[in-house]
Amino acid sequence: xxxxxxxASDYMEGAHPAILNRLIETNLxxxxxxxxxxxxxxxxxxxxxxxxxxxxxxxxxVGGTQVNEIVITxxxxxxxxxxxxxxxxxxxxxxxxxxxxxxxxLTIAHDHGKISGAQIREYCRxxxxxxxxxxxxxxxxxxxxxxxxxxxxxxxxxxxKLHDACREWGLMLYADGARLAYxxxxxxxxxxxxxxxxxxxVFYIGxxxxxxxxxxxxxxSDPGLIPHFFTIIKQRGALVxxxxxxxxxxxxxxxDHLYWQAGAHALKEADQIRTALKExxxxxxxxxxxxxxxxxxxxxxxxxxxxxxxxxxxxxYDENHTVIRLATSWATDPEDTAKLIGFLGNL
Amino acid sequence: xxxxxxxASDYMEGAHPAILNRLIETNLxxxxxxxxxxxxxxxxxxxxxxxxxxxxxxxxxVGGTQVNEIVITxxxxxxxxxxxxxxxxxxxxxxxxxxxxxxxxLTIAHDHGKISGAQIREYCRxxxxxxxxxxxxxxxxxxxxxxxxxxxxxxxxxxxKLHDACREWGLMLYADGARLAYxxxxxxxxxxxxxxxxxxxVFYIGxxxxxxxxxxxxxxSDPGLIPHFFTIIKQRGALVxxxxxxxxxxxxxxxDHLYWQAGAHALKEADQIRTALKExxxxxxxxxxxxxxxxxxxxxxxxxxxxxxxxxxxxxYDENHTVIRLATSWATDPEDTAKLIGFLGNL
Amino acid sequence: xxxxxxxASDYMEGAHPAILNRLIETNLxxxxxxxxxxxxxxxxxxxxxxxxxxxxxxxxxVGGTQVNEIVITxxxxxxxxxxxxxxxxxxxxxxxxxxxxxxxxLTIAHDHGKISGAQIREYCRxxxxxxxxxxxxxxxxxxxxxxxxxxxxxxxxxxxKLHDACREWGLMLYADGARLAYxxxxxxxxxxxxxxxxxxxVFYIGxxxxxxxxxxxxxxSDPGLIPHFFTIIKQRGALVxxxxxxxxxxxxxxxDHLYWQAGAHALKEADQIRTALKExxxxxxxxxxxxxxxxxxxxxxxxxxxxxxxxxxxxxYDENHTVIRLATSWATDPEDTAKLIGFLGNL
Amino acid sequence: xxxxxxxASDYMEGAHPAILNRLIETNLxxxxxxxxxxxxxxxxxxxxxxxxxxxxxxxxxVGGTQVNEIVITxxxxxxxxxxxxxxxxxxxxxxxxxxxxxxxxLTIAHDHGKISGAQIREYCRxxxxxxxxxxxxxxxxxxxxxxxxxxxxxxxxxxxKLHDACREWGLMLYADGARLAYxxxxxxxxxxxxxxxxxxxVFYIGxxxxxxxxxxxxxxSDPGLIPHFFTIIKQRGALVxxxxxxxxxxxxxxxDHLYWQAGAHALKEADQIRTALKExxxxxxxxxxxxxxxxxxxxxxxxxxxxxxxxxxxxxYDENHTVIRLATSWATDPEDTAKLIGFLGNL
Lengths: 347, 347, 347, 347
Fold this sequence. Notes:
homotetramer, seven-stranded mixed beta sheet, 13 strands, globular
């Protein structure tokens, strides 16, 4: 096992050492609970500043499905559903969390994980044109992820168009930023935290996959948007007693741009792998700019590859080929990248 | 501020140093997610052994309200409710989590936080005697906490009687062990992990208040009791991606009896405070054997006390008196205990 | 059996003959569905006029529990609960419908089925005074029934005070009028439909127990209070395809004051029974002005009584006595009343 | 208006005269409530016999969406969803009732409203083959409608195959029989009540669209399948106080084969219209054997048609054509059919 390489996901290690260091330094301080401590407050201040959203309501939760479920059910009225790409995390891989919260996920077709303002307009127009629409689930919000589940990125222009379509049809816009570090640090990215805060009603900044032990920071630019969100968080079992642990992690990630550094490291490793794959003639399922790489391998090659390297199965391509995902992270060891590249050459 | 004493709660610090150390040691290991790692597996093995429940299904979640909501809604059928003391955490301080999950909390009177098998029998008898009971919420389970929210403990005999009443009337028995370390390590305690595993259908071993950064270990002795509990956990947003973090904490807590040591430390400090309070003639609201101490202060004394020491307001006793709670923990500094005792003498 | 008398409840017969006649007359007319027909519209017009609420939103549903659940869950936000008397129908006899809808029923003590504005104020003051209230269920509305489950009536002054307390603390006020005909037609009643429409945010006018085959009319004075209520009704399975059937029944009940006549008939019969009970020295559990009568019988007498007359068991009074309820209705045959009175004399 | 024809739906009139007559005859009888009366019991007996399911649990509810929501949420466990055609009533036109009940509708492609055993097998195989399926919604049951929303019918062979696939993969099979009379009475139909009772875990016999004022009869062949279904019905606000009204309607529909006669009448009228449409060269969207007829009209013709006859808009066919639905019912006047046919000839 000692020789195996691991590129299966971006949540295989613990936390960025800077975070562990601060946990150690502060361990025996006594603070008040439930996120009322000064570490959480400091993290909120830094995030508000980076978002240029001085009044934003910011809450630190534990995981992405939890955030999605709580934000979405808090924003929707009982008769509303959420529009999402059919590939959206909430559509497929959250075990029906949104439906368990009482709401339908209204899936639409995706383009490499993305949806567009034009699709939203079309969906809404068709809905309101339907004579029976008051017997149907009204679209109440739009869910996107940045980067998407396919590792692609919305451009600022695309995000603006989604925002405009949402405003036009009275929908909320919500962005799942589970891997946001790998978007923000990406060369081709032109969407900043400030843009997200301005164009989305709510979004979250992922910690779990971006250097933290766990944790996601929910940003609600308009602090009056979800009244009593604290109590809702408590009710859904998502309130961390020692809130300082989550707050401190985000405080660290947003000190000296650690969040961007963590992202940039993963992207550098991913770029090297991408370049090597291209040089060696591997076939991409499609190209992505972030830390996730999707390639198509014939099953025989995959068999050999799998003996040496852990990967994520994505989908069957055809009888003889399979799509797999390789992911780098803030923790990827450059030596492992080099080994992987060497190994790819020998396959 | 530097001089203030803090006895307000048992979740003001980070984690037991032994836990931090292991987080550091293992930080860059790569493991699979969602609790499938070997640290989680090792923790499960240790807990199963201590519980003498070799087949038990064990899951690591993040917090107590979360565990309560998920376990209770998983065990109940739609037409059932859960019997609990009117002082039970689920009855009062979980922001309606159980109701949000669709179930009524059927509150009954408490005796210093405890309820009895006799009360369960009486409740069930009255329910089934009521000609309209099929228009009412059927009791489906019983919720207790060990220690209780009042710091008291069920004896083995009391627990056995609750168990018997539950079996007689077809109810599940569930114990909330948020502060279990402070019960297990208590001199007067005669309820072991093995007893809990045998007499309760489900219980949880608290980590957050007992030395961990966060985390609670749910023990289901009969592994078939809640099918697909993993997926339910995921659906409720309670599945931790880096499950190893929680697993590792419990693995540490159940290595070399750290969990009992952590509990014993808090109890030793609490005992010293109790003794001093008695010697100095303070008035107890009632006596407790665990890490929570409830005293009645006149409001003038409380004013002075509060300037020096953080405490928890419990309830108004009368116009001129207030009940407050003092809590020790695994992290209480003996010097702080000494200072508190000194201070109590001068009030 | 042919000789048995039936005073067990007010929903033992079909519908007032005037309703059946109109069902027959209109049977083969073709109308649009879901309450968009002209009979429903005519009923709405009449009710709006009687309520002096020209813009009121009015919906016809099937039964009381259904109305309660849908109105309450539509008015409450996820973190809120509904205050009700511990004897309220929603507190006891709706099988946990409100909790199944996600909300806690916050029960308070009752005075013969009634609660007061002072109690509401006290509840809210204590709630907001509690330092942990954001970990608790916020009161969001008040549920009352008129007449109550105990057959008592709120006076206009009492209703005004409830309204004032609700306004003061930001609560909605909702009245369950399952037996409203028996309140409106009562001599001692001073609360009109207009008062209810003005002082309650929502209330419903009971049909099922007041002369209809089935049906309850929900009155929302402010038509913007519950957006998309139609779709909510559909979603909860409460939208009747042939809405005209319900509409027509209410149109009939509110033509020529049939609703008041139906109520008055029941009250006249009840008054005769009450007078006879008093004359004959029967012991009342407490006195009521409406169609429900509560008396205490020793168990031996009850045994004989039950052989001749169907009644509702209310509760055990003591070892040897039982509280029973007798109910009259729009359909009570005066001959049956006479027989009952005769029989009471012979017991 | 007096001259307009109405073929928009099958729920435009009241009830079959035989039902009204029995409501009148029995109106002042006093019966116990909630379906415990002898009319309901008699209806149950007749249905059990026709289903050859002597132990079947039978409940009378009010409407189809209500039945679907209550049955489906009662049969599913929290982590499960229901497979349905993307055209299924629960998928589209129930305002998210199933999701409001906590469950995902897992939509699959349809063939004229129908799905197949092969599709179920394929869906389940793909689900269990997916390495992440425990992060996804497990299929727990299959929903079909007989006749479908497209007026088509499952053959006995098709139903058997669905049943077999469900058994193979551990799924429940549930049939929505909102228009069952129009299936049972159909010449090409080979699925009997007995077959439905044998092959489906639960199904319902539609009353609302088949001659009743309202009402649907839920048949659960295995009486232990949904424990405490009565209380669940109460909790969901679906328990009718005067249950005898619904029971009596079904007792009448299942006396002297009225249900089949009601269906046969609609089919005879529909067949005449179909024949005329064919003779006159109208274009069918697709052919159906039951009381719903789908034709494609160019928009100009539709404009004229609509002035004379009410119809249901189904969908746009292309820029210049529209699909409409015509429906007959137990109440369709043969004179109206003749007029429609005459009118169709003149368009």
